[in-house]
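Two records follow; treat each independently.
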Amino acid sequence: MEFRELLFGLAIVWLAAKLAGEGMERVGQTAVLGELLAGVLIGPGGFRLVHETEVLHALAELGVLILLFEVGLESDLDELLGAGAQSILVAVVGVAVPFVVGFALMRAWGYAPLSAVFVGAALTATSVGITARVLTDLGRLQEAAARVVLGAAIVDDILGLLILAVVTGVAQAGGVSVRDVAWLSGKALVFLIAAIAVGIRLAPTLVRWVGRMKARGTLIVYAVLFAVVLAALADVIGLATIIGAFAAGLILARTERREHVEERLKPVADLFVPIFFVTIGMRVDPGVLNPFDPDGQIVLALSLTAVAVVSKLAAGLAVYRRGVRRWPVGVGMLPRGEVGLIFAGIGLAGGVIGDDLYAALIVMVMLTTFMAPPWLKALYGRQT
């Protein structure tokens, strides 16, 4: 019975994603917005056709790994490293401003300092998966602004990990020492540098070795295996798995079989990536947006959303390189997606925030996630 439910759930998810995505494409918007809306409609807050089981959640996580692997394959490491200092500055501004402003808003609203810290931390998040998918759909992944956003999102993940470690430590009343923070930072930097440096040296030899094999599907299996192994290693040392998958894509992008891997990965991505975006939408409860509900959190939710938008747009002001448009950078940092949900979920599970504040954070995540795709589409539609 459980397997049958999974099959029906997948059928509904795929059908809803493609129909909604097609509808959005026909009205001039990116397909990812349709996939997100499809999740809202079929999820517990909509028609309750599908519920996010552990298996469906695992498939969604695999989907975002494949997406970031695909993004890495389509990126040029030399150009991405060339945007390094710029990306770091954008990331720092995109983390510091939301955290400070979010904390101040919550304190002004009367919330306890620890709750305010968690809200500020949730506002720092950036879902690179959302922006990456939109830029891919628009064919803008190779532009300077896209490289800055993707580079900043990786740095954002590292900074977000540090913030999450700190606030989780405080919530557990154990605290986090400066040595702990330095240790986490060191692990992140060592992993990225070592993975890319070693991978670039070994990958060409491994790809040539795989190329001599005759079994069907050998290239794509070993390519995805490489991404999964790096993602698992990142998780083992306490980093976001998407960093490992993205690093794997960057490494294989420098091999002679890059185009072959990209071509064979597309059907896999078409199956798994929509599951990720649909499940994001499924976590949304539209009922919290009811303006006539006296117990609703619509005012707080909209206030948090305003802070979330303005503070991330400030990251665009940190762009100093010529040829890089500030608006796409700022808007590209808007969606919180699954990253913001992780922060909110940990706060709720730890008893630091209540159901009311959690609901407001979910609405903020939803609105910023929904807002970015059409905004980016509009920006690139009137490119100057």
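The next record belongs to a different protein.
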Amino acid sequence: MSAESKRGEGTKTLLVMASLVVVVAGLKAGAPVLLPVVLAFFLSVLSFPLLHWLMRHRVRLPFALLLTVMAVAALLTAFGFLISSTVSEFALAAPAYMEQLVVKARTFLESLEARDIEITDWLALEPLDPGFMVDRLGGILGGTVLGITSAVSSVTLVLIIMICMLAEGAGLRKKLQRAFGKGDTAIQYFTGITGEVQRYLEVKTMVSLMTGVVLWGWAALLDVPFPLLWGLVAFVFNYIPVIGSILAAILPVLVTLVQHGFGRAALLALGYLAVNFLVGNLLEPIWMGRRFGLSTLVVFLSLVFWGWLWGPIGMLLSVPLTMVIKIMLEHSPKMRWLAVLLEPGPGTAAAQPARESA
């Protein structure tokens, strides 16, 4: 390879990297505008089967669109009401639980010191002051309430964008056929991507719902306070890869430890481990197939990247967004190799059902 060709390849690589930096900076700066659009897109993909079912049963598009949006709005309203009511109840009881937890922690540390186990050199007791912990918890809860309020304020915008997307999507296939012809590859590319994204989101939502319902029942069976809240948290956090199930289990286990002691808290933790192992390692790979898999490293990096880019909502959408990118790469002959690199390694993939036709 000549010096000029090497220089040209280097320049091309630098241009690509500079373009990526500009795109990422634009995504971060445009988060207030882009996040409602992304949420509306995912809601549209999930609700389009209902719209299509209504139209197949001879419901005209305006009425089918209205019924679909009303159904989505009702679900979002019910979910928001459950979240706000349960979080408010827990916020009132949280300081008392925190004080009891601090007392238990101090008792445990003092018992260690009574056995001549020196711990004060590496663990300061000041952070275990109840007032300090309650103030810190109040700050966390305040930030959570502000986040919920911000999300609720953008629901109307998300629904409006979703209406436009559904109305456009209902006739988009015919529009593409008129523009490119019935056998054009652009139509196949578009329908292939939307179909696979829709299937992934449907399966992920169903798996998350199953996880939330089972853990809600398990918490209620063990008489854990606020079982509905922990089921809702498990449903939402199941969208967060790697650490989502761990984060969802921390608060209910601590509350159970304070209320019922170590034995029942251990039972609750075992239930979380069992449900997340069965759902995450058995049911989800079987229903999704190997094609929808991502390597553990890619999952973790996507969590860090989208969380840094768009905050908590980016963490929730990290895997769906990465899967959309992977599906788009799979449908591009020149970029398919990159989609293969995002998949699990040979050892991991061998343990999953090879449902390439999924």
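Discussion point: Confidence is low (pLDDT under 50) at residues 121-134, 137-145, 348-358. How would you locate this feature using only the token line?
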